Amino acid sequence: MASAPAQQPNLTVEQTRVVLSEVIQAFSVPENAVRMEEARESACNDMGKMLQLVLPVATLIQQEVIKAYGFNNEGEGVLKFARLVKMYETQDPEIAAMSAKLKSLLLPPLSTPPIGGAIPAS
């Protein structure tokens, strides 16, 4: 008999804050910081390479934390957790701030073109 698919954990706002905080802290663990830095250096700020190299490392780091809270230990668990965080972002400013911090850890800073000289005047 096949087992039923795992249910998404039902976390409260408070529990989500705790898990999100632990996920952010996991990126500060020296071993994980080195893994992320190596992936970023290999990607050379190329968005395509970021998706290929940095995102998988970031996903693994998140999986290591969220599996303790009932999320599956595959990419699907990270997606479900991200959806849960997104849902609570509009309800809780602390979750919104932590979510923004997590995104800043995952994505490279966007460079903006210089003001002026980029577009020739007509």
What report would you give on this structure?
- It is a single chain.
- By secondary structure, this protein is mainly alpha-helical.
- The chain has one domain (13-105).
- The protein is built from 5 helices and no strands.
- It has helices at residues 13-26, 30-43, 47-66, 75-89, 93-106.
- The radius of gyration is 18 Å and the shape is globular.
- Mean pLDDT is 84; it is low at 1-5.
- Pfam families: P_C10.
- InterPro entries: P_C10.
Low-confidence stretches: 1-5
Give the number of DSSP strands: 0
- How many H/I helices? 5
Q: Number of folding domains?
A: 1
Q: Which range best describes the helical content: under 10%, 10-25%, 25-40%, 40-55%, 55-70% or over 70%?
A: 55-70%
Order of SSEs: HHHHH
Q: Whole-number average pLDDT? A: 84
Main sheet attributes: strand count, strand direction, barrel closure? none
Distance between the termini: 72 Å
Radius of gyration: 18 Å
Hey, roughly how much beta strand do the residues contain?
under 5%
Coarse morphology = globular
* Estimated structural class: mainly alpha
Protein name: Protein C10
Keywords: Cytoplasm
InterPro entries: P_C10
Organism: Hippocampus comes (Tiger tail seahorse)
